[in-house]
Amino acid sequence: MKNYLIKLLTTVLCIGAAQICHAEKKFQKVAEINGVESVYMGKAIIQMAFRTSPQVNIANIMQLPADIAERINSIEVLKCGSVSKMKSAKRTAGEIIQSMNLEVLLEGIKNDSEMTIIYGQPINHEGSEHIKNLIIEVIKNNKYSLIYIDGIISFNKLNVNLNL
Length: 164
Fold this sequence. Notes:
With 164 residues, this protein is an alpha+beta fold.
């Protein structure tokens, strides 16, 4: 009986750990598309990066100040320069974004080939400017980029280069 309980507990813990690890990479399906480059940064590397620099540049799209590092769990950056794969990457990312029930916080469209959309989940406390699950999606010069920040960020501290 004791061995059975230990095996059962071990199995449950392993399954739980696998689900937690898998949940960290929200846009893994997009990263697996041929032609998509991806970078995943976990909490430890984010904190190290912010210790060495007062501000971190992410994919030449945004700057994050060091004082928000504690509230960020992970960052995913995905880029696709292949026009033929871009539609698949954007469609897959769109399905993931839709499943997250995020709001469109800002949308900038210059023409059919240039757009920026910022998604997030505002934290609705009176006077709060904080956002959870921030996503910045950019299409420019036939290239698709997506940045996902899992954590809580102050919208006032974001420095996003829309460059439209």
